[in-house]
Every structure is written in structure tokens, then in C-alpha cells.
Here is the input.
Amino acid sequence: MAQLAFYFDGTRCTGCKTCVFACKDKNNLDVGMAYRRVWEYTGGTTEKGADGTCTTSCFSYYTSVSCNHCDKPICMANCPQGAISKDDETGLMAVDADSCIGCGTCANACPYAAPKVDPETVKAVRCDGCADLVAAGELPACVMACPARALKFGDAGAMAALGERGATAPLPDPAETEPNYFMTPTADARAAGSSEGFIGNPLEVA
Here is the structure.
């Protein structure tokens, strides 16, 4: 099976969230619903020395995340209705609305908080990698919109050659789902390391 993947260059991202709004516009998403999100991760301390001067180790950086169309999609494995599928030709995830009962099991299972339950339709919804645009030979809306060119999309092997599988905080351990999300972290992200036990998106700024 072929597999498409996202690449994110954290050294270029400014946290502008243009990717988020391009996705919302393309999918006609209402307020409160987003398939792509921008997470801000901050840390460090500021301390005052005996001489009255202050030193700081504070840092802040952004991570743009959507569905990662994982090699081991935990959402699909946990769906009681078999409503989630992975395309054989692209590896992109999709939801069969006719089969979905809106139970939210997929949303609760995903450590990236990628699937959502639409409160109006009571059906699971998610990033599908802009499968319609990809089929037409174009890139996902988020990738095309990024003004800093921090996002790329293509064959997983090519994206993996650009960076490492996403593992820096606030991302969860990639071993759980083997996400097709590769990145070049900032120096601060490398220093922060992993975020063991991180669940959901409490640092979301989208």
C-alpha cells in the first residue's frame, strides 16, 4: 500500500494559523471545529539572582498537527462499527458517515485528538488529507496556504527523508500509532524532548 504523509518544519512556523483557517474554509467548518490545529508549547523559568539581575530559560514554539494517517491507526482499530477506513492507494483515513453512530470512540482513542464528533450530525469527522484535491493532482489546502512553507505533503519515504517522525512535546510517543508525520524540530523542541503522558490538545491555540 502506498502511503502519503505530512512534513512540518518547526523552524519556519510562526504560529500564524493560516493552515488552520485554510482547512476550515475548504471544509466549511463552523466555529469550534478544526481538523488542523496549531499547538503552542512553552516552558522554562525566570529567576532573579542575588545581584538583582534576572535570567530566563523560557521558550515557546509551535507545532501544526492534523490527522497523521497513521500506520497503526488506533481510531480505526477501536471503531465499533468499522466506519473508519484507510485508503489502499494513498493511506489516507476516511469515515463512512452511513456506518458511523457518533459514539466518539475514535475521538477518545486518538492521542492526537484528530477525529471529532460533529455536534449537529452526531457523526465522526476528520482530516482526510484533502483526498479530493490530492486525486486532482493538488496539495492539501493547509499545505498550499502556509505562507512560511512550513508544511509539505507527499510520499511517506520522501517526507521521512526531510525530517524525523514527530516525537517532541507536546506530541505523544509515535510508537503508539506510527504517525505519518515527519518534522524538523526547533532547537527548543529538541531540548524539551518528548511529552510522556500527553493526551489531547490543552495547548491548542487554533
About this structure: Residues 42 and 76 are 32 Å apart (CA to CA). Confidence is low (pLDDT under 50) at residues 196-206.
